[in-house]
């Protein structure tokens, strides 16, 4: 059971917008620690998608965006494409554990 | 170009020891934290711990403290993850990562699959 809670799965049709939530607590997201998001395509290593809540590394399309409010964060994907089908993970620092933690992951299915 | 290149897949028996490696290149190895992430078969990502090669400061997740040892040799820009006595439950893919000062993992190795089976 991860300290960051994500929905196990989300789905959407091509072209649609989907959001993935990441719910934490006062010892991680709510304490002001940055949230990062990763995309893991099948059979590959994860890739950094969003860092420090709402920043995209070079090369990541602007269809991907992140936000944070209170003890939660969200990843939004607009203009859904078949190639976006992957697992997505949030990550933050947890002061109770004195280390970084990942959410349980969300499988995105493009219908 | 930043690259993290990990050692190859391993098949071991329970009780055996193991040390896997990850070589960083294309950046100043001693200027970034270097970490390890576990992914058990069909499961999510788990942060194991990090090391700062500049001074060997090491931090572990409580879940992995005492179970593994993280080290680094800055003379060869390589970090290591080792076990003294493997268990079947250590079967997983292990990724090395470069961790930035904000805590994000901006570069990942290709992964090392460790299989522990009698």
Please count the helical segments of chain B.
0
User: How much helical structure, as a percent, in the residues of chain B?
Assistant: under 10%
Report the β-strand fraction of chain A as a percent range.
Answer: 35-45%
Structural class of chain A: mainly beta
Distance between the termini of chain A: 28 Å
User: Compute the gyration radius of chain B: what is it?
Assistant: 13 Å
Q: How many DSSP E strands of chain A?
A: 9
Low-confidence stretches of chain B: none
Name the overall outline of chain A: globular
Rg from Cα of chain A: 13 Å
Secondary-structure element sequence of chain B?
A: EEEEEEEEEEE
Compute the average pLDDT of chain B.
96
Count of individual helical segments of chain A: 0
Labels describing this entry:
heterodimer; A: 111 residues; mainly beta; three-stranded antiparallel β-sheet; 0% helix; B: 118 residues; seven-stranded mixed β-sheet; four-stranded antiparallel β-sheet; 11 strands; 53% strand; globular
Descriptive overview:
- The complex is a heterodimer of chains A (111) and B (118).
- Chain A is built from no helices and 9 strands.
- Chain A has 111 residues and is mostly beta strands.
- With 118 residues, chain B is an all-beta fold.
- In chain B, the strands form 2 sheets. In chain B, strands 2, 4, 5, 6, 9, 10 and 11 form a 7-stranded mixed sheet that branches.
- In chain B, strand 9 (92-99) and strand 10 form a beta hairpin.
- At the A-B interface, strand 3, strand 7 and strand 8 of A face strand 5 and strand 10 of B.
């Amino acid at each position: 059971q991860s300290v960051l809670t994500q929905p196990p799965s989300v789905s959407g049709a091509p072209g649609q917008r989907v959001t993935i939530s990441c719910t934490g607590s006062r010892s991680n997201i709510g304490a002001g620690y940055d949230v990062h998001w990763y995309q893991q395509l099948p059979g590959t290593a994860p890739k950094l998608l969003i860092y420090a809540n709402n920043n995209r590394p070079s090369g990541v399309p602007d269809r991907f965006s992140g936000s944070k409010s209170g003890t939660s964060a969200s990843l939004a994907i607009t203009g859904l494409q078949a190639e976006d089908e992957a697992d997505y993970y949030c990550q933050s620092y947890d002061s109770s554990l004195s280390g970084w933690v990942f959410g349980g992951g969300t499988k995105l299915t493009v219908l | 170009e930043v690259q993290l290149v990990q050692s190859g897949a391993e098949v071991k028996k329970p009780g055996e020891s193991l040390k896997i490696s990850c070589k960083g290149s294309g950046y100043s190895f001693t200027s970034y934290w270097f970490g390890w992430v576990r992914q058990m078969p069909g499961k999510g990502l788990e942060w194991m711990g990090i090391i700062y090669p500049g001074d060997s400061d090491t931090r572990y997740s409580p879940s992995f403290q005492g179970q593994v040892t993280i080290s680094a040799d800055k003379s060869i820009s390589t970090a290591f993850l080792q076990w003294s006595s493997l268990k079947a439950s250590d079967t997983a893919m292990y990724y090395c990562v470069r961790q930035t000062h904000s805590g994000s993992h901006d570069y990942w190795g290709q992964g090392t699959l460790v299989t522990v089976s009698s």
